[in-house]
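I'll show a record.
***
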Amino acid sequence: MTKLREIFESLGFTDVATFIASGNVIFRSRSASTRALEKKIETALERSLGFDVATLIRSTTELAAIVGFDAFPGSVTPASTLYVGLLKTAPDDVTREKVRALSAPNDEFRVEGRELYWLCHTRMMQSIASGALLEKTVGTRATFRNVSTLRKLAAQYCE
């Protein structure tokens, strides 16, 4: 995580911090272009680390909306786990239906904007779904986080 923080600082970002060992990096930038920032970071990470790293940026406002969104009203139980896939781009309606069609008794899916919400009613290892399958279905780069991690991020960084 130290190397990751150093890479972001070398790009001129300020207030750089990493959050748990999950690849989450918090930073400030003067740029308002998410796409330009993602490309700049991806290029630097590939150059520094030697492999392609999908970079998916969300503002604190977007993060607060993600953790505040109730994608599955009344369906979350103590035995289920909610994952959020941060997508590179928002899928079209046809792709949203493909994602929804993956739903099964143990897995529910919903796309909202650039997020794919996955409610897993069993252990992830027993699920028919995987991050790779979901990324292929939506046709865009994605990274998945347990909503608990996102809530901790929001509690620490969102006002």
Notes: The radius of gyration is 16 Å. The CA atoms of residues 18 and 36 lie 21 Å apart. The chain has two domains: 2-49, 60-157. Residues 2-49 form one domain.
